[in-house]
Amino acid sequence: QVQLVESGGGLVQAGGSLRLTCAASGRTFSSYTMGWFRQAPGKEREFVARISWSGGSPRYADSVKGRFTISRDNAENTVYLQMNSLKPEDTAVYYCAAGNIIATRADYWGQGTQVTVSS
């Protein structure tokens, strides 16, 4: 079992940056693929980024490629999402996910953190 708690969301102006943190509990954290998803009002949840258990093979949605960076620290049971050059369309609730991530499905989910980008 893994519990995930996101933090770091907030209000930022377009062009700004935020760093989201996902703290995980559970001894098997280092064996899980980790990911970030987001859901904007009135829209379906969408994939943002994922990273393998070793920290390699990061994958990004085309909409965030070159602006967002996912990383993890297995010693600290933490995964990060560095978001730069933020746009108003990045406004959403961001969710951390773990486990077997396929499309928009995952074994474990956090409660989400709100990111609002003003124009």
Rounded to the nearest angstrom, the distance between the terminal CA atoms is 40 Å
Share of residues in helices: under 10%
What low-confidence regions span 5 or more consecutive residues with pLDDT below 50?
A: none
Tell how many strands the DSSP assignment holds.
11
The structural class is: mainly beta
Task: Tell me the radius of gyration.
Answer: 13 Å
Gross morphology: globular
Strand content: over 45%
Query: Sheet with the most strands?
Result: 7 strands, mixed
Chain-averaged pLDDT: 94
H/I helix tally: 0
Give the SSE order as H and E letters: EEEEEEEEEEE
Q: What structural keywords apply?
A:
119 residues; mainly beta; globular
Written overview of the protein:
- The protein is mainly β and 119 residues long.
- It is 0% helix and 49% strand.
- The chain has no helices and eleven strands.
- It has strands at 3-7, 10-13, 18-25, 34-39, 46-51, 59-60, 68-73, 78-83, 92-98, 108-109, 113-118.
- Strands 2, 4, 5, 6, 9, 10 and 11 form a seven-stranded mixed β-sheet that branches. It has a four-stranded antiparallel β-sheet with strand order 1-3-8-7, with no helix packed on it.
- The radius of gyration is 13 Å and the shape is globular.
